[in-house]
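Hi W.,

Here's what went into the run:
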Amino acid sequence: MRATLMHKAHDVTVENVPDAAIRQPTDALIRVTRACICGSDLWPYNDLPETPGGQPMGHEAIGIVEDVGSEVQHIRRGQLVIMPFGYSDGSCPICQEGIQTGCPNGGFFGSPDVGGAQAEALRIPWADGTLYPIDVGPDDALMPALLTLSDVMGTGHHAALTARVRPGAVAAVVGDGAVGLCAVIAAKRLGAEQIIIMGRHESRLALARDFGATDVVKERGQEAVERVRELTGGFGAHSVLECVGSGQAMDTALGIARPGGAVGRVGVPHYAPIDGTGTFFRNITVAGGPAPTRAYIDELLPEVMDGRIEPGRVFDRTVDLDGVPEGYRAMNEREALKVLVTP
Amino acid sequence: MRATLMHKAHDVTVENVPDAAIRQPTDALIRVTRACICGSDLWPYNDLPETPGGQPMGHEAIGIVEDVGSEVQHIRRGQLVIMPFGYSDGSCPICQEGIQTGCPNGGFFGSPDVGGAQAEALRIPWADGTLYPIDVGPDDALMPALLTLSDVMGTGHHAALTARVRPGAVAAVVGDGAVGLCAVIAAKRLGAEQIIIMGRHESRLALARDFGATDVVKERGQEAVERVRELTGGFGAHSVLECVGSGQAMDTALGIARPGGAVGRVGVPHYAPIDGTGTFFRNITVAGGPAPTRAYIDELLPEVMDGRIEPGRVFDRTVDLDGVPEGYRAMNEREALKVLVTP
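Here's what came out:
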């Protein structure tokens, strides 16, 4: 089968690899019908060292179940399923508590062991715990929106929940990538009254406004902090949704949280340890992590299905598998916001 | 009047100082009827550099209002009041949101500007926002318990709230000082099912059991982490109440939180910046700070008054003002758990 491998920074290829296959009785095998490129894939795209054999890429997918192992009970052949970016057994206390990305038997797609989703097919560990069947056709017009439940929409929702967005809250979203834009959707549906989007790409900021952002801050660093303070009566935001993961983004996030506020971080951390003294004296909560998107599908799916939320609008380009390397380039150069892949 | 000053580590004296007096029209003046020594006072007791003029000590008090400024509206002469360890205007958005310790016009007692509570009298900024009148006599048997609402009981409650203790939760309390013991009370009343107290002083651990602790962990460091994992099915605690502030305590607190869990920290931080990557991948929330004890009196006072909670039991020694230096020594050497002062 064909699959995407990253060999080192800026070196992405689509190659013939051994077919994905069931290994464990709890596995399923899916044929990927939709995948995409994630903002987090741009971290290795810029800093992956030489990796012999290549790193399988892609962790977001919708697919059709082609086969299931002998112990799979609920997932059946022929079902269309959402594949969250992490796999999880679904039965341990951590999964039962809704933190599937902390499952002691879990892990993440886009790794040598399980392969990546920017491919024709994929082995799914713990199929019953991991996959979420959906009752639509594989070419439904909602497919882009449904695909976001694999990662970016659920991740934006996680940022909003862990930043404790509540009705009437002042929320600030750091980053105007696909996750940041989904975080705006999430903050809006949780009732934030003021939603400040922080970024500098006009087309993305326009989409953020469509999604519910009330204010735009294009400044960075200390200027950004001061601008947010101005917009919030001098106090800062109750809820800061950190959707980048860089040191500057995290510094800004901590700087714009008001006393008693919370930073919900979902950007993969590329920053130094967090100041524990300033955050203490300002009673700032620092929360977040890899979003348990599997847990959030129940809540978000109905709103996707009836069009109340439209996270599929973050996709602005579609490629087939051969177009994946060009998709990386386009996203990395900010020509594309988020690239959909139809293998 | 007489007041306690700390000149450098291990050098505490009670001296004649200028009388406390009203300076601002929003001030009140109280005569201190009960004060105490705080575990946090032991940090400067061990590391305060030479401080010319001395640092006024004490931030917990109950007192009688002797005078009020011309703009004070709700606090009246003759009232018995609880003085939270921080002062706050009570009217800004941050105070209205219940984060009085983040009030932009606020600050903390035990500072050169406002003086300390281990003294005969004290100036209270923002009397209306700061003080909480109580309707008991100044020698009521509940006085020790009421005094804990100034700091330690409210601080334990803050640890429990910020660690998100919920009915059925597994809670772990790091530290068996007065705050840690109050944190046990707080975790119990919020419905924790398992409460692990971590400390090594037999008499304190016995009190912790009386307050609701179900398990005791005397180990430290990695051994403590492993012991807590054993006691929690291998997963760790949902809620960790960090009541010390040392590097070892914080490392332990982070180590024993389960994926998706929260650390509510109330020990004044004496540790390095907090790892932002491990906490991210485990979805650990780090929260807490100086407790807005003013906000918590409404909720806790009725339970103190009817004896449902007995935080006054943390006091095991009483001294007059002259006995304060000896009180510091006794607390520092762990001969006394918490020392009550009757000026």
